[in-house]
Amino acid sequence: MITKIKNESFLQVPSELTTPNDLYLAQYLSDTPMAHKEHCVGIAVNMIGSHKRVIIIDLGFTSLVMFNLKIIRKSGIYRMEESCLSLIEIRSTKRYQNITA
């Protein structure tokens, strides 16, 4: 299922923990990046309409789906400009060189 979410207020709602009943979201997540492979390196499930803690990252040779991530530590902050499938224009954002989850 390929879904487009452009509602910024929807994207700002905190995500909830996933349960075994939410495993189907992994398949939904894999469909959208595949349709945008040339410019999508990963998405979170809130970008396709669910408030659960699930993300997918394209590693080039495979995709990695992660459930219920919690950031423990982050360091090396920097700013960059990037686009997003859920937002209309390129924006400045904070990123971190190192993240421990």
From TrEMBL:
Gene3D superfamilies: Peptide deformylase
EC number: 3.5.1.88
Single GO MF annotation: peptide deformylase activity
InterPro entries referenced in this protein's UniProt entry, alphabetically: Peptide_deformylase, Peptide_deformylase_sf
Cross-referenced Pfam families: Pep_deformylase
Keywords annotated in UniProt: Hydrolase
Top-level taxon of the source organism: Bacteria
Coiled coil: none
Family per record: Belongs to the polypeptide deformylase family.
Protein name: Peptide deformylase
Native source species: Streptococcus massiliensis
